[in-house]
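debug: dumping io for the single-chain case to check the tokenizer round-trip. Nothing else runs in this session.
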Amino acid sequence: MNRVILIGRLTKDPELRYTSSNIATASFSLAVDRNFTNQNGEREADFINIVVWRKQAENCKNYLTKGSQVAIEGRIQTRSYDGQDGQKRYVTEVVADNVQFLGSRANNGASSNAQPAFNDEATPYDFASTPENNTTDVSNDPFADFGSSIEISDDELPF
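debug: decoded output
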């Protein structure tokens, strides 16, 4: 089984390219903090190359910037190529199947208008709130005037 899940921050803006058959691909590096500190008491990070394909690649380019926090789910891939000097080069990267936008660099004091800013302590769904604050009034059906069925196509989703 080859599955990896990472949470980290982009070290630079995503680079978007298109293949010869016009398929979008984006690449970026993700800084992922380690769970422990070094001998000096400092937390270190690993810098992991990420590759994203198709519509998700375009969304990454449009909505993520350096410092954005994301969760990546994907697989590790190793490939090789011949460098300009004739030496064989090896690249290990994560090919992302799923990219979740978790926060933005605005949380670190910088400004960003690329995506909504959610602070690190609270997600869009506030699980810490009391149950009485999380009720939904089902007596007012927002789809009552649209007939008996509603069809939703995956092509219309923003991501």
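debug: round-trip ok. The CA atoms of residues 7 and 40 lie 24 Å apart.
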